[in-house]
Write a structure and sequence with these properties.
It is built from 4 helices and 4 strands. By secondary structure, it is an alpha/beta fold. It has one domain (about 15-105): 3-Layer(aba) Sandwich (Rossmann fold). A 4-stranded parallel beta sheet has the order 2-1-3-4, sandwiched between helices. α1 links the parallel β1 and β2. α2 packs parallel to α3. It is globular, with a radius of gyration of 15 Å. Mean pLDDT is about 85; it is low at about 1-10.
């Protein structure tokens, strides 16, 4: 018989960076209901600060935000961590935007 504690739960920590407060609340509450720990930021500057201070297991970021857009935040995060998964939320669908997201390390 295994000595593994089957009641232990590993919760992924998600950093959600979204400037639309209503959308941020909906996404955050849905992820929390599914068992994730969610920290939110309302722009790229705040998102970068929170990642630097607290880290994250996954980053979900809007592309078009004030102060620092999601792509720029992603570039700066990639200088800190090459491995944290980074997903972008965007209404942009142009090939150049998609390529840019992947080139900077988006998943």
């Amino acid at each position: 018989m295994s000595n593994v504690n089957r009641t232990a739960v590993c919760t992924a920590r998600i950093l959600l960076v979204e400037d639309d407060s209503t959308l941020s609340m909906i996404i955050s509450e849905t992820l929390q209901r599914d068992g994730f720990e969610v920290e939110t930021a309302c722009n790229g500057v705040e998102g970068l600060q929170k990642f630097t201070k607290h880290g994250a297991d996954l980053i979900v970021a809007d592309v078009m935000m004030p102060r620092m857009d999601g792509f720029e935040m992603g570039r700066k995060i990639r200088q800190i961590s090459r491995t944290v998964p980074l997903l972008f939320l965007t209404a942009k669908s142009g090939i150049d935007d998609i390529v840019e997201g992947f080139e900077l390390g988006g998943n």
